[in-house]
């Protein structure tokens, strides 16, 4: 496997003001196939995505060969707190599979291989000099530490999952504002962005880009939203009918 050469080194700049679509499926799901991931990614790009975020070696390789937009790659492994590209070995693997940007756990929590985030990023760039790094963070302190460690971008991916911040219903816009105000490196909004309005609100705070996954590329979850709404409507027939009539 070789690093993709189709995307120029200004991948971060190409994502500015754009939408990143996370194309992932959980193990055991019908869509959990590298070819399917690449097709979903192509569909996302056709719809206007400036880049895609993809999980796993085979999926990253398949997608990077199919697209000419920046590919943010990651490798979810293990059941410990740190599982997003948790070790240097995982980071090097994803970079060599073709990711233009390697996304990894950017928190201050201990990493499974004992390396610090600084050591991980430094040694990754020795192995794959051209690769860029996105730090998935859970707090402002995480983001500031990741910036010092050499990350090219910081994301709000882990906000609400590390115990430092409460989990918000939608994107953690308060954290977005904090990161934009305090960080020199670009900020990517990711995590619980479910509607176009939420994405727009995040961007309005000054984010570099916004990443949306479940609401676009996870049919099982999207279907469950509609199915639940239909079931609730059946349980309470007639409620809201007048309001709907007024809209026509």
Structure, briefly:
It is an enzyme of class 5 (isomerase). The chain has 248 residues and is α/β, with parallel strands linked by helices. Helices cover 42% and strands 15% of the residues.
Can you walk through the features of this model?
By secondary structure, the protein is an alpha/beta fold. The chain has eleven helices and eight strands. The chain folds into two domains: 11-217, TIM Barrel; 220-248. An eight-stranded parallel β-barrel has the order 1-2-3-4-5-6-7-8, surrounded by six helices. Strand 6, helix 7 and strand 7 (187-190) form a beta-alpha-beta unit. Helix 2 packs across helix 3 (57-66). The radius of gyration is 19 Å and the shape is globular. It comes from Beutenbergia cavernae (strain ATCC BAA-8 / DSM 12333 / CCUG 43141 / JCM 11478 / NBRC 16432 / NCIMB 13614 / HKI 0122). Keywords: Carbohydrate metabolism, Isomerase. This is Putative N-acetylmannosamine-6-phosphate 2-epimerase.
Side-by-side strand order of the widest sheet = 1-2-3-4-5-6-7-8
Query: Superfamily at the CATH H level of the largest domain?
Result: Aldolase class I
CATH fold descriptor of the largest domain: TIM Barrel
Low-confidence stretches: 1-8, 241-248
- Helix content range: 40-55%
| Average residue pLDDT | 92
Element order, helices and strands? HEHEHEHEHEHEHEHEHHH
Strand content: 5-15%
CATH architecture of the largest domain: Alpha-Beta Barrel
What is the overall shape? globular
Give the total of beta strands.
8
Q: How many strands, what sense, and barrel or not for the largest sheet?
A: 8 strands, parallel, barrel
**Which CATH class of the largest domain applies here?**
Alpha Beta
Pathway: Amino-sugar metabolism; N-acetylneuraminate degradation; D-fructose 6-phosphate from N-acetylneuraminate: step 3/5
GO molecular function, one term: N-acylglucosamine-6-phosphate 2-epimerase activity
Family: Belongs to the NanE family.
InterPro entries: Aldolase_TIM, NanE, RibuloseP-bd_barrel
